[in-house]
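Pipeline run #58 for the internal structure catalog. This entry was flagged by the ingest filter as a single-chain record with no existing model, so it goes straight to prediction. Upstream metadata was stripped on purpose; only the residue string is passed forward. Reviewer on rotation: M.T. Logging verbosity set to normal.
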Amino acid sequence: MKKVVSVSLGASSRNHTAEVELLGEKFIVQRIGTDGDKQKAIELISELDGEVDAFGMGGIDLYLYNASKRYVIKDAIPMMEAAKKTPIVDGSGLKNTLERRVIKYINENVFSLKDKKVLMVSATDRFGMADALHKYGADITFGDVIFALNIPIPIRSYRVFQTAADIILPIACRMPFEKLYPTGKEQEVNVEKFEKYFNEAEIIAGDFLFIKKYMPKDLREKVIITNTVTKEDVEELRKRGAYMLITTTPEFKGRSFGTNVLEAVLVTLINKPQNEITSDDYNLMLDKLGFKPRVVVLKQDVAKQEIAE
C-alpha cells in the first residue's frame, strides 16, 4: 500500500486521512496541518522523508504563474528542500492541467460560461483555471490585488491582469507567505470584507481559503468553483444560500483533498522521475482515472434557469 502525506501550513483542525483505491493501487492519503508553523512543517517532512511515497506541500505554493512565466515563493523553498528522498509537489502541475479540464467540463456539461460574471479570488495561484475561464468567454474580475495584498483594486481585463502580475509577482514572492495567504488559525477567520465584489459575481472561483476568509453572509444563487472543502465547509455554504458547489478534485471519504495531494498521488502512479513528468503525463493519467468534478446542488429550490441555459 502506498502512502501520500500532505504537510500543510494550514489549520490542524482540517486534518483528514482516507484510504482509496485507484487503478488497482491502494493508497493511504493523509493531510497533516501545522497551524502555520513553518519549522514544524520542515521537521515533519524531514522525519517522514523516505518513509512515504510522495509528499504534498499544503497551505503554501512553491510556484505562482503568469502565462508561461513561473515565479518561486521564497518561503516554500525550505519545505521543498527538506524532502531529500521522497518526491514533493505543491499542486501546481494539476492546477495547470486538471483545473483546465474541469472548466472545459463545466462549460460542456453543466452550464455555458460565456458572459458569466466570475470573481476569481486569485488567478496567479490557479492560472490554468483563470486562463480556461477566459478562453470560454467568462467576464472575470481578477481579485489577486484585493485578496492577497488587501488593496481594493479589481482588475477587469485579462491583459491588464497579465501586465500587473509581471510587476507584482517578483515582489510578492519575496514577502512572508502569511502576508499573502491565510495560514494556521487565520484559515478559520471570516472577516466578510470586500463584499461588493462577491455580490457582483454569479460565480466565485479559486482557492477556498480565500473565499472562506472573505465571503459574505449572503451567497444566494452563487456558484462556487473551488478545491478543498470539508463537510463543515459545504454546510456553511449551504447555510449562506450558495446554489451550487463544484470542486476540482474528487471526494475521498467525505471531503475533497487539495491539488497538492492529488498531484502527489499521480506522481506515484506515473512512476517516472519527478523532473521528467510533463503536463502530457498528468493528462494521460487523468484520462485513465476518469476523474470528473464533484458537482453538488446546495439549494434545490433556487431557480437557476440562466445557469442551465
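catalog note: The chain is about 35% helix and 20% strand.
catalog note: The radius of gyration is 18 Å.
status: ready for reviewer M.T.
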